[in-house]
Amino acid sequence: MSNEAPVIGVLALQGDVREHLIALAAADAVARPVRRPEELAEIDGLVIPGGESTTISKLAVLFGVMEPLRARVRAGMPVYGTCAGMIMLADKILDPRSGQETIGGIDMIVRRNAFGRQNESFEATVDVEGVEGDAVEGVFIRAPWVESVGAEAEVLAEHGGHIVAVRQGNALATSFHPELTGDHRVHALFVDMVRANRTPGS
């Protein structure tokens, strides 16, 4: 069973869903969009894409996936969030919008839009622990950064003195968008996490 390609969902409420589906498929996973609780029940791991974190939060509640998603993350389902997805995985947001909820899963405090507005988007190379080879090209679009992490969270990358990639157990988060560059190594790292979680005794 563990040799089969893992089934990884992309939360398809808002954001760059298609790019994540392509990146996951390139990293040897079976990738499918997820919008409803019954679709959530059929996957081995989940990617939460970039977009607008407040909108994703409200739509997740509207579609009835917020609570099942929290339960699965608490139960150890591997999850990876990029940009807005990082905000969704934070236990605390420094400056939440009214009514904004998170899934949680990583003991970190995140600052929304920390790297500036849309017109201040940029690309930068980032050395990500656990990703072999050259530095990863990171695309930062209205990106958050991590203000601080708890004892359980592991910092995987920094840029400009700010934390931009974090892992805690089966949860992974990056401020940047690796799905927009054609370099699928961060997705491959997540697929490996999902495989390890499916394999008994790992």
Task: Describe the protein.
It is a single chain. This protein is of the alpha/beta class and 202 residues long. Helices cover 26% and strands 30% of the residues. The chain is built from 6 helices and 12 strands. The strands form 3 sheets. Strands 2-1-3-4-12-11-10 form a 7-stranded mixed sheet. β1 (7-11), α1 (17-26) and β2 form a beta-alpha-beta unit.
Describe the secondary structure blueprint for this structure:
Blueprint: E1 7-11, H1 17-26, E2 30-34, H2 37-40, E3 45-48, H3 53-62, H4 66-74, E4 79-82, H5 84-89, E5 90-93, E6 106-111, E7 122-126, E8 136-140, E9 145-149, E10 154-159, E11 162-168, E12 171-174, H6 185-198
Parallel strand pairs: 1-2, 1-3, 3-4, 4-12, 5-6
Antiparallel strand pairs: 6-9, 7-8, 10-11, 11-12
If you compute it from the alpha carbons, what radius of gyration comes out, rounded to the nearest whole angstrom? 15 Å
Query: Beta-sheet strand percentage?
Result: 25-35%
Q: Specify the overall morphology.
A: globular
How much is the average pLDDT?
Answer: 93
Fraction of residues in helices? 25-40%
Distance between the termini: 14 Å
Number of helices: 6
Structure summary, number of beta strands:
12
Which residues form runs of ≥5 with pLDDT under 50? none
- The strand order across the widest sheet is 2-1-3-4-12-11-10
Largest beta-sheet details = 7 strands, mixed
Sheet/helix structural class: alpha/beta
Q: Order of helices and strands, N to C?
A: EHEHEHHEHEEEEEEEEH
